[in-house]
Structure formats: C-alpha cells, structure tokens
Amino acid sequence: GENVEQHPSTLSVQEGDSAVIKCTYSDSASNYFPWYKQELGKGPQLIIDIRSNVGEKKDQRIAVTLNKTAKHFSLHITETQPEDSAVYFCAASILTGGGNKLTFGTGTQLKVEL
Amino acid sequence: DAGVTQSPTHLIKTRGQQVTLRCSPKSGHDTVSWYQQALGQGPQFIFQYYEEEERQRGNFPDRFSGHQFPNYSSELNVNALLLGDSALYLCASSLAGVEGYTFGSGTRLTVV
C-alpha cells in the first residue's frame, strides 16, 4: 500500500520567514495530494491540494509543488505569521469513482516565533 | 452552515467494553470516512461509507465496524476495547467523486 514520509518533524522559524515541508510517496498511482493544518483540539483543516496533472499551485501565502517523477511534493509558506503555528500533514490518495482514502504523513510541528 | 459534527467529544472506557461514536456529515455531503489518530501521529484510515455500504477499509481488525444511515450520518463501533485503541477518532465527510474532505473535531477515546 501507499506510504508517505514527511520531513521535518519539527520546524521553528522567525515571523516573516518562509517555511518548507517536504513529503515523499511510494505509490506511483497516487494522483491527489492535499495538505492539512491541525490546531490543538481541532480536526485537520484542508489548506491546499494539488492533482497529479499540475506541477504547482498557489493560494496567497501558501504554495504546493509536485514532482511526479521523484514522487516528492512540498508545502511552502511565505511571510509566516504566529497564527501559522500548528501541525501540518501531507497526504496522498488515488482518486477513483469508488472513493479516496487518504494516507497521511507523520506531521510537522511548525512554530512561528516572534 | 454546520460542518462535520461528532459526539461525544471525550469518552473514557474500560478495557473489554464496547463504544459507539457518532458523526453527522457536512450539509450536502454523502460520504463518510473514519480515521484513528494516535498521539503525535497522522490519521490512519479505518473505513469509508457511501450509500449505507462500506466502500473501502483500512488495516483495522473486525472489532471496528460501522454504519451509515439514510440521512448520511454514521456510527463507528469498537468492540472488546484494548488500551491501544486510545486515540482521537476523526470523522470526515465528502461528496462522492469530489476530492476534499471536511474533518470534524474528533472524539477523544481513552481506554483504561
């Protein structure tokens, strides 16, 4: 089955700096890659996603890049703010008409320091 | 517009007991998935329900079972609880054929 590895496990940046979180996946059939932000006591919240027919997607300060050949995808957050502090999870999925289970990475604890 | 609602928020059970967790999907969603999230880990897929049937299942034993009702709400049942079942149980809803789950805030289950 699919295996998703995520690095780093913790990341500390100064406010205003950029943060990058990287993931690799094992199943070349995976075609959907969402990123989730989880704050303490809450469920994961979808922040951005990308499909395998796209190499990059951007939404304001957040961007995701995908390298299908290397099976890598990354989350980039620019101009970080204290409210960006949370645990971030990458995930991979095979979208089919029969449903799409997500395989998650182990998470990155991002801390944005003032 | 209400998102995904899960109940209860917290639960303490004794080893060997049975537990039922409940989920109401986001309005307009027809597919419900359940995930188990151990402390410090990413969510692990348990199963997914669509049209009242289990459509996909992860690597969880038969002690974990579920149900989806005609109004799309869902239950997760766990029998013969083990200490290792202690975790945050997340329900996620989606619309069939459309990517993008909406997660609830979860039920924190503690088995003692």
Give a short summary of the structure:
By secondary structure, chain A is mainly beta. Chain A has strands at residues 4-7, 10-14, 19-25, 32-38, 45-51, 56-59, 62-67, 72-77, 86-92, 103-104, 108-113.
Features of the shown structure:
heterodimer, A: 114 residues, mainly beta, 6-stranded mixed sheet, 5-stranded antiparallel sheet, 11 strands, B: 112 residues, 7-stranded mixed sheet, 4-stranded antiparallel sheet, 51% strand, globular
Can you lay out the helices and strands and say which pair or pack?
The complex is a heterodimer of chains A (114) and B (112).
Chain A: E1 4-7, E2 10-14, E3 19-25, E4 32-38, E5 45-51, E6 56-59, E7 62-67, E8 72-77, E9 86-92, E10 103-104, E11 108-113
Chain B: E1 5-7, E2 10-13, E3 19-24, E4 31-37, E5 44-50, E6 53-57, E7 64-68, E8 74-78, E9 87-94, E10 102-103, E11 107-111
Parallel strand pairs in B: 2-11
Antiparallel strand pairs in B: 1-3, 3-8, 4-5, 4-9, 5-6, 7-8, 9-10, 9-11
Describe this structure in words.
The complex is a heterodimer of chains A (114) and B (112). The N and C termini of chain A lie far apart (41 Å). Chain A is built from no helices and 11 strands. The model of chain A has no long low-confidence stretch (mean pLDDT 94). Chain A is mainly β and 114 residues long. By secondary structure, chain B is mostly beta strands. In chain B, the strands form 2 sheets. In chain B, strands 2, 4, 5, 6, 9, 10 and 11 form a 7-stranded mixed beta sheet that branches. A 4-stranded antiparallel beta sheet of chain B has the order 1-3-8-7, with no helix packed on it. The chains are: A mainly beta (114), B mainly beta (112). Chains A and B meet through strand 4, strand 5 and strand 10 of A and strand 4, strand 5, strand 9 and strand 10 of B.
